[in-house]
Amino acid sequence: MNRASDRVFFALLSIVVGTGCIVTRAQQLPGATPNPQASPAATIASVAPQPLARNLGRDEFTLTTDEGMWLLNDFPSKQLQKLHGFAPSKEWLEHVQLGAVRFAGGSSGSFVSNAGLLMTNHHCASRCIEQLSTAQRDYVKSGFSAKESKDELRCPNIEVNELVAISDITEQVNGATLGRSGAEYHAASKSIQAKIEKDCATSSELRCDVVSLYRGGRYHLYKYRRFQDVRLVFAPEFVAAFFGGDPDNFMFPRYDFDVAFMRVYENGRPLVTPNYFPWSLAGPKEGDLTFVAGHPGHSSRELTVAQLEVLRDRSLPDWLLHLAEGRGMLTEFQRRGTEQKRISSHLLFSVENSFKAIQGRVAALHDPAVFAAKVAEENALRERVSAKPELKATALHAWDDIAEAELRFEAIRLPYLMLEQGRGFWSELFDHARRLLRSTTESTKPNEMRLREYTDAQTPVITRQVGSTAPIYDDLEILTLTHSLTKLREELGPDNLLVTRVLGKLSPLELATRLVKGTRLRDVKVRKALLEGGVSAVAASRDPMLELARAIDPEARAVRKDYEDNVEAVVEKSSELIAQARFDILGTNAYPDATGTLRLSFGRVLGYEEGGKFLSPFTDFRHAFDRATGSEPFLLPKSWLDSKSRLDLSTRLNFCSTNDIIGGNSGSPVLDRDAQIVGIVFDGNIHSLGGDYVYEPKRNRAVGVHSAAIIEALDKIYRAKRLVEELQAARP
Amino acid sequence: MNRASDRVFFALLSIVVGTGCIVTRAQQLPGATPNPQASPAATIASVAPQPLARNLGRDEFTLTTDEGMWLLNDFPSKQLQKLHGFAPSKEWLEHVQLGAVRFAGGSSGSFVSNAGLLMTNHHCASRCIEQLSTAQRDYVKSGFSAKESKDELRCPNIEVNELVAISDITEQVNGATLGRSGAEYHAASKSIQAKIEKDCATSSELRCDVVSLYRGGRYHLYKYRRFQDVRLVFAPEFVAAFFGGDPDNFMFPRYDFDVAFMRVYENGRPLVTPNYFPWSLAGPKEGDLTFVAGHPGHSSRELTVAQLEVLRDRSLPDWLLHLAEGRGMLTEFQRRGTEQKRISSHLLFSVENSFKAIQGRVAALHDPAVFAAKVAEENALRERVSAKPELKATALHAWDDIAEAELRFEAIRLPYLMLEQGRGFWSELFDHARRLLRSTTESTKPNEMRLREYTDAQTPVITRQVGSTAPIYDDLEILTLTHSLTKLREELGPDNLLVTRVLGKLSPLELATRLVKGTRLRDVKVRKALLEGGVSAVAASRDPMLELARAIDPEARAVRKDYEDNVEAVVEKSSELIAQARFDILGTNAYPDATGTLRLSFGRVLGYEEGGKFLSPFTDFRHAFDRATGSEPFLLPKSWLDSKSRLDLSTRLNFCSTNDIIGGNSGSPVLDRDAQIVGIVFDGNIHSLGGDYVYEPKRNRAVGVHSAAIIEALDKIYRAKRLVEELQAARP
Q1: Residues in contact with B495: Cβ distance below 8 Å, sequence separation at least 6, in sequence order
Q2: Which residue, among B676, B658, B666, B675, has the nearest Cα to B596 in the 3D structure?
Q3: Where are the domains of chain B?
Q4: Across the interface, do A494 and B317 touch by the CB < 8 Å criterion?
Q5: Quick one: which H or E segment has residue A195?
Q6: What is the tens place of the pLDDT at every residue in A252-288?
Q7: Are residues B136 and B49 in contact, defined by beta-carbon separation less than 8 angstroms?
Q8: What phi, psi does A57 have (nearest 5°)?
Q9: What are the DSSP calls for B284-325, one per residue?
Q10: Among positive and negative, which fits the CA dihedral B128, B130, B134, B140?
Q11: Is pLDDT at A54 greater than 60 in this prediction?
């Protein structure tokens, strides 16, 4: 499935995996390349960006496949008309922009009623479901259904963003960085973006992000309306949502009821909104045109060959090893008991999901045909750059500069990952400690000089994170912190000065236990008091986790600065040059790589060939029952077994389509040409994993839950009458 | 450290890692290439092989570095004289051949007294130590010291082999396979080797192995005297033997007391033997010439570029992932309690050791300089082959044939690993079941037609394994079997027919529990009765583990046959052609790749540069105490702390030398020019890991325990008076 959790550990990972978490540049990894996001100004403008390349024929290209995660403000309607006989209007696109929302932390959702009802995947809501559960009342296991409005439960740590405006700020950004490089480039770029975002986010109800598209070829400012009161309305049992578990993950045929409903509240009441998608009871038929509007997190189709090599040979294998070890550890931890299983299941899911996704990507990069195509494409572009004297002088060195920066990164990769990216301190309590330490320190600096995740525009994010009431489990904290401290020692060496300073004469387990048992940062009140007390309160604190964060901060900041100035800045600037050269030479018949921001893809409901036979694009309830073994992960819940006789077993359950999606798209609505909900995307098939690098039209498929299945199950299995009525009332 | 356990799971792994387990061809992995071992006839011949390439100047080459794992029957004494001023005589070499023994299952040792006293590493003896321990009497933790002869404890499953004769059988083997290819080649090769080995092993006291050297360039027959009554005499505490644990593993400076003593018995009495090495109390000084006589398990210096690519991109990364997950699982399993820790510590050590070793190898293969050198070397040879018309016709296609075979292997890799190599059934009880099923089945066939591990020459091995009294722990069995059944389903898919047949409606945990709790194969008497009862007894058994082994046997045999006929046979035959071409063109100034058989390397006690400073080749007791933290893995045992004041802290503890060693060499004696013991090898440094592919003279180092440290510790820490006296009496 296309998603990861929002822990720091996985926030970094999500960039590599492309799970669409909100990606700050602080979390960049070379080879997975820069993807800046942060923003300025503009009132709530209409969707009217500058044309991408004014001097090139934007309208002249032809679509031949369903490839593309297109910008809504630059959608190829005209071309789609030729390919699929339908051209979305400006109004259609505006409506979709407002109805398709983003979950801060990654993943997608949509409004499905005028009373703020949101639909997303169970696996996107599962951290909330887990956080609302206790040992006595485990909604992960039992599912959840709010009988009445008052039963809807507020999620401790969910924020939903609705994209209200996009504006083009390319000239502003480029003007600020013109003629600069290295640390100067980095400082200028960070500074202008922080300013733009601050000027834009005029209230805490707004969030503004500068989005770098085409790897710096264009900069757009995305302005969101933020909703922080989000309540759980309905969730099925985990086993129904994730039927088939890891073995079936990224597979098709599929039988998952991976859907959940939440509701956005405003001032204590359900949000009243016209921006919702009505429900199609019939759902899609084979061959139907489908749209997916969501937030693909990250793709790597524009990377240079040098960057792909680093991904293939270094970054991805390294992540796989970390995930594999974490998987073994968590799997065994779960066997300790029911409670251990409950508190770690979301984390284990994230680990397994990321593992399988990255494995697929590595396999794609090892596919000689894929890699040869990438090499050929790059060589062709470089040749054409060489042939143009002015481009040759300004842009040809960009590829080599990136390759060199990747080499430079290799030299600092380990300390950077360990100290700055959470690999050495895998702990939510540590994350809290660092957040308190840094946010208070940074807030004393001018906005433009701060670490980017602590600029004024980010204040609401910090406030939400510090005030989160999500439970923190000591057992799990000790487990992950012990593990990561062991890795810290393993990777940097037991004689490394920082390692000896951190561990002293303690073992990783002893230190982790002492820190987790000794810290008071699990208490929201303590955290809020420290945040409000600012630098002096934090400096005065003898909290052991804060002391640890403080002890390693100089080294962590130093390696980050080294990375930002000598790796990231070089890659960003060079990528910009390549993007510009590509515009100059090849025009703009292209969508930019995924950036965790709203995109629209189109496609058709279509099966594909696998193992010598052509698969139908649909599955049904009957075959789900056939496939059940009675044991996880092929266990159907009691609610399903009890309702079997009532169900129309031929109702379509899951389906696949040619839509081009990637991690972060989970929870995206699948829409028909009338912008009605015909399903919800929850996965891509195994052939979609190479989609990080290339879209392969023959077998790359998005996998979704059919709209008919949702009504059938809500009605006959879950007896969720109120919800069914609300969805039916939302019909056009 | 250079060793792995002898479980099936790791037997395969050991080939990849090169840990020197006894490698049967059944355990080959392409990319790690064939390495046949099995054998015929000859009385106890003298060490007089045919010259390697009669038509080429064997004596004309010059040694420039200490590279080489040389054959004792083809040792470059003359060249060594020029390089180091000493030429071992024929008698010197014969004496070393008999004094340096092999442990069946991998790793090395040596006779150090005329009463059958053996020295090896603690980590080579640790399975025995673990098997002799119980929850109440844990020798892993407390160490072991037999006060008197009667206190020496028999190891449940140790066999020691002394190499008594080598003969050249190249012509016999080549004659049998001449003009054949594929399945025919394989059958002919297997058949002649089985015949030769059977004719040689005229009693159960003998073991005979055909050894393929230079990847089929030469075939030698190794005849061993076997000893199965081996008793534990002395072992230090695990924490002293493995001080620094995984973080310090493969590192230098080092502080490990990684030594153990055993004794070979014959007819219930200590073996009387003249073939032992006397003890040097002084040990080596900086710059001293040192010899290491041992059993390097496997190296890959002769592999083709295509094979190295498979290792780098497929096999090794795949193994790393398996090891990483196993490591996470076992680490967490150990935290369940003292008993879990005790019963799994050897296994975890094996996993971590292999992981670190393979990581080093992958890093070496990703070193552009290393790989470019390999490519250049191969291209040069291919060019010279192309230039000779007769070679061009016969040998040039060999490289492409190997590349093609590797591709073919990729298509069957997963089922082959899962079904035939133990990946899907990681369980000692399953190993017993398969052994009983197959040995009884195979014994009804003509010797030459059997699976190679069940030929007559292997009967004593089977008997020993079936009759092993080593304990089997249900908890650990369920853990590893559950894990591997999960992998079976994951890798082959839940809809795979064999997977559904194996699992039915059960989860991997349910099935593993049912099998482990239900089988009676942990009982030696039951196993012996089945072995004696033969095919009919096994067929009549309803033991669930046997039924599982039977249920998957057709598919397992089928994929093995596919592998042997279409991959292994092609690689073997092609490698032979390349080896012959190399002899023709480049002569024989080369040692063959390691094959788990006796080799002699030479070198000097020498430090090296690391991180900008030159390291001394010695460490001492003082710095071990300085490094101790009081927590594992930097914990010194109480015996050390209590004895500190008695010790001469300046006594040298560990040392490094330029000897070219690799996994399997663990436990090898380090000898001076008088063939006196000056130390014992227990590891290579981190720079030695790339030694699988190239020897890097500047920093590749063998790491050993100094002979002076052994006496100092036995005398002052362990008060092992009887042992010290025996070693001192063994002085020349």
Answers
A1: none
A2: B666
A3: 8-228, 305-311+334-346+393-583
A4: no
A5: helix A182-200
A6: 999 999 999 999 999 999 999 999 999 999 999 999 9
A7: no
A8: -70, 90
A9: --TT-EEEEEE------TT--HHHHHHIIIIIHHHHHHHHHH
A10: positive
A11: no
Measure the CA–CA gap between B466 and B434, rounded to whole angstroms.
11
Pairing state between β A160-168 and A218-227: antiparallel
Q: Tell if the CB–CB gap between A325 and B327 is shorter than 8 Å.
A: yes
Q: Which residue of B has its CA nearest to A365?
A: B313
Q: Which residues of A touch B489 (CB under 8 A)?
A: 247
Identify residue A447 by its one-letter amino acid code: N
Residue B63 CA to residue B69 CA, distance in Å, equals 13
Cα-Cα-Cα-Cα dihedral sign, residues B331, B334, B340, B341 = positive
Backbone dihedral angles phi then psi of residue A23, each to the nearest 5 degrees: -100, 110
* Omega of the bond leading into A36 within 30 degrees of 0 (cis): no
The residue type of A11 is: A
Contacts of A632 in chain B (CB under 8 A): 507
- How far is A384 from A363, CA to CA, in rounded Å? 30
Confidence of residue B61 (pLDDT cuts 50, 70, 90): confident
What ipTM does the predicted assembly reach? Answer: 0.88
Instruction: Print the SS3 string covering A696-724.
Output: CCCCCCEEEEEHHHHHHHHHHHCCCHHHH
Tracing tokens 């430079």 back to the chain, one arrives at A408
Q: Which residue of A has its CA nearest to B507?
A: A631
Query: What contacts B132, CB < 8 A, 6 or more positions away?
Result: B139, B144, B153, B155, B156, B232
- Please tell me chain A's helix, strand, coil percentages from 3-state DSSP, rounded to the nearest 5: 50, 15, 35
pLDDT value for A589: 77
Residues of A whose CB is below 8 A from B314: 366
**End-to-end CA, chain B:** 31
Interface of B with A (CB under 8 A): 244, 246-248, 313-314, 317, 320-322, 324-333, 336, 362, 366, 479, 483, 489-490, 493-494, 503-507, 510, 629-632, 634
Question: Residue B58: what pLDDT?
Answer: 53
Enter the tokens of residue A82: 């030729």
At residue B441, the 3 state secondary structure works out as: helix
B494: which chain A residues are within 8 Å (Cβ-Cβ)?
244, 247-248, 634
Tokens of A102: 């983003």
| Full-model pTM | 0.89
The alpha-carbon gap from A610 to the nearest alpha carbon of chain B, in Å, equals 13
For residue B395, give the 3-state DSSP assignment.
helix
* Chain A residues touching residue B245 (CB < 8 angstroms): none
Instruction: Considering only the beta carbons, identify the residue of B314, B322, B505 that sits closest to A631.
Output: B505
Instruction: Look up residue A400 and give its two tokens.
Output: 């080599």
Give chain B's mean pLDDT: 90
**Closest CA of chain A from B329, distance in Å:** 4
Asked if A118 and A264 count as a contact pair (C-beta separation under 8 A), the reply is yes
* Cis peptide bond prior to B544, omega within 30° of 0: no
The alpha carbon torsion through A446, A452, A453, A458 (nearest 10 deg) reads 60
Nearest to B329 among A321, A332, A366 (CB): A332
CA end-to-end span of chain A: 31
Amino acid at A224: Y
How far apart CA B470 and CA B156 sit, in angstroms, is 5
User: How far apart are the C-alpha atoms of A319 and A356, rounded to whole Å?
Assistant: 11
By Cβ distance, the residue of A328, A362, A505 closest to B328 is: A328
- Quick check: B494 and A634 CB within 8 A? yes
| Cα–Cα distance list, B698 to B149, B253, B659, B683 (Å) | 45, 16, 12, 17
Enter the tokens of residue A182.
């290295």
Separation between Cα atoms, residue B474 and residue B38, nearest integer Å: 34
Q: CB–CB of B493/A246 below 8 Å?
A: no
Alpha carbon distance A329, B340 (integer Å): 15
C-alpha A7/C-alpha A422 separation (Å) is 9
